[in-house]
Amino acid sequence: MIKLRSGLLVLVGIVGLVLYFSVRGLLTYSKNRTVEARSPSKVVIQKSDSPTNGNDGGRQWRASMGDIAASGVVVNCTEYANGQLSNVFILSDGIIITQSIVWPLSPSLLGTKEYETKARDAFESRVAIEPALLEFREIISEYGLDDAESKLYSGIWEIYTIRAQIRQLKRRFKEENILSYGVNSARVLADKDYEFYTIYNKSRLEQAVYYQHGKTRLEKLFGRFPDTCFDRLMSIPVFWNPVVLNSL
Amino acid sequence: MVFYFIKPRMIVPEQQVSEISKDSGYITHAKKFDALQSRTGTHKPLGFDPQSSDSMDKYWNDRYETNVTTVTNIVKTGTNSTRVQITSVRKNKHFGTDDWELFSKIQFQNDCALEPGQSQILDILREYPPARDSSRLFTGAYAAKFVLYNICNEVNRSIDAEIRFESRVKTRLNKVNDFTETRIQRDYERHQEQCLRSWQSINEDKEQYWAVLKELYGDFPKDLFQRLMAVEYQQTF
User: Fold this and answer.
1) How far off is chain B from A65, nearest CA to CA, in Å?
2) Is the pLDDT at B91 greater than 80, yes or no?
3) What is the DSSP code (8-state) at residue B67?
4) Are B91 and B64 in contact (CB under 8 A)?
5) B158–A contact, CB cutoff 8 A
6) Shortest CA distance to A52 belongs to which of A85, A78, A24, A16?
7) A20 and A58 part of one domain
8) Residues B162, A171: C-beta atoms closer than 8 Å
9) What spatial distance separates the first Cα and last Cα of chain B, rounded to whole Å?
10) Which of the residues A84, B70, B198, B214 has an alpha carbon 20 to 30 A from that of A68?
11) Are residues A17 and A94 in the same domain?
């Protein structure tokens, strides 16, 4: 009888254990699902520290939306040596977009004296209508980066280009021209035909591409570029597009 | 062993939260706050009922002082143009009170539950020890949302202006005559002025908020402030 009682007790214990974890698991799952559906927010860069080389020697990395990373919303970016960026966006509802864009500043000019001279001239002719450039200079100067003096204006122009790219992205967002940008079969992809979060997620991921690519260039230029410095620079809005220095 | 596993099932807060949240979003979050319990000393009644969204709405709507301060700004743009701007400022009479802190906390955490990206604001504020340890942490965090929203609006307005400017230039180029060049030049100058105004307006918003943070926490470092201004989430994209 005692054995039967203890056996029953163990059985009840096991059933209790199973029930507890199932109910708890279900609750947690349903909570996460709600958050996933409502809250696309931070963009998280993955594998950027250990980029792999693509088939054509391109540098590859991936960015995903932090809170909905598990749902597979992601961009795989390949940066080519000629400044071309190839982005494959995997969005919700099974939408896959392959986008090809060219970064406005040439990789070959980066870090050269010629670039610095051109950037300084461009800075001086633009600063009257674009006061953000002064703030860029002030922030970069604070950080005592390597060769900061000889590369200061190149750095400012790099930041200006990133901020202008973000402004253009926001403009496309307003003009409902997010999905089709840089896509060959543009007619197939009209923003208005898709859900808001699809458009928004794609915009944030594209923004992450600009941030990451721009930051990589800054790191090439200065050897290192602190995140805090980059974040501060990204708080400053610009109102014009930078002159494309390659064609000066 | 059985009691050990049964015990966690006796913890009810989660169940309470999910039940109550059917009635009001505020109650759910108000339950989580210890701020109400930690209000010691004065025993002054709260200016709003955290369990009633109507009461919180009323508290929000009644926030302005009746006295209106008029501010005159004289703005010089370019060499020949001067603009006089007269604005009225009404202060938030709740600002800086315990009630406002609790109100800000409830609202901020409600918003964060919907969009966790906003929690970056709090993360950055907490990097500054006086802000982290301050009893006005959420007052500062909640205020940041409005500044970021205003900046985003201003940027959007400038983008609209840019679109209008380009379309005007396109129209003028379609009807070329003797005045086309002059008119385009005038449009360009006007747009340029508008961009500078937007820049100025954004900077004014930032300066005001920075002053608020300094008032709340004694001081606030510029680098942290700039990082705070770089926070982006759906409402400010």
Assistant:
1) 10
2) yes
3) -
4) yes
5) yes
6) A78
7) no
8) yes
9) 52
10) A84
11) no
